[in-house]
Specification:
The complex is a heterodimer of chains A (109) and B (235).
Chain A: H1 3-6, H2 13-16, H3 18-29, E1 33-34, H4 35-42, H5 46-58, E2 62-69, E3 72-79, H6 81-99, H7 102-107
Chain B: H1 9-16, H2 22-41, H3 48-66, H4 68-79, H5 81-84, H6 96-99, H7 111-144, H8 150-166, H9 174-191, H10 200-226
The chains are: A alpha+beta (109), B mainly alpha (235).
Amino acid sequence: MTPGLQELASLDRVIHEPARLMIVTILSAVPEADFLYLQRECGLTQGNLSSHLAKLEEAKYVVITKTFKGKYPLTICSITTAGRRAFGEYVRTMRLVTHGDAGAAKSGG
Amino acid sequence: MPTSPLPNPKLRALSYWFVDGLPILLQGALSLLIAAEILGNGTFTHTTLGRAVSLAAVILYCVVAVRQRTILEWLKERITYPRTGYVTPPFLNEDAATALNLTTLSLNEDPSLAAEKARIRRQNSTRLWLSAAGVLAACFAVLLISNPWICTAAGLAMGLATWLICRETRQPLWIIIAGYPVFGFCMSTFLAGSIAQHDRAAYFVGAGGVLFILDGLVTLGRYLRQNPLPGASGQ
């Protein structure tokens, strides 16, 4: 195995799962989003999204808070610093392996 | 699934703010208030009613313009969030130019993407300046040039400016983009002779307000039809 490819073994498996990768990609781009928005954007069922969010919360990559906007109850999700760092690292590794990208190696997420 | 075809989550969140047509409706209302103020201050300034309308329009405009965000949030809490959810618009935490970038945070240091980012920023800035210049030129032209066909030219300029402004942030406002040139042509053909030159700008702003409201209503109607309130949605 080439040294570059071995980097793939170090990929964060919490983020690597496609549904969780979608969630983290959205949350890394916005300050916060609610459950319904994430569900629609990712095209996941309620149960599926709930379980993936629970895994991300368990890894301390996402914070979930229950609140109200007027009378409407919201389940607000936002990415933590650790989540942002892990996502940056994941993207860096993927770029490094797939493109041999020197820029990605330098940036370090 | 979402209606926006934009691939970037930041751009999608930005366009989500406009998905229900409410911001456009409010902009239309504000434009109508400006038109009422200009008309009240121009042709009808000598009448008590004209002065009253003008004063009321100014007060109402100030209230709505200052409380714009609160009004929109209030409406969205009742219409949008229960249907399609809530996301903080990216422009509330950063400047709009940054929100329009096609890169994500983790890729910011990549040299090739940094160049792409700079190119997009330059493009956005040029587009906004061109649009502003078009709108200003159209307003001054209808005020200063008496030739009736200037209204058609101004309508075309306003339509083009609207297209330039909205083409990357949301669905194009076709009613406004097509409506301005049509209104300009109608004004040149039927109204130019009967309207005082200093009132032309007010008519243009007022027509813009009506077009914005129409577009907002069409967008809102489509949004409500496509997104009925979910029944008992436990999370």
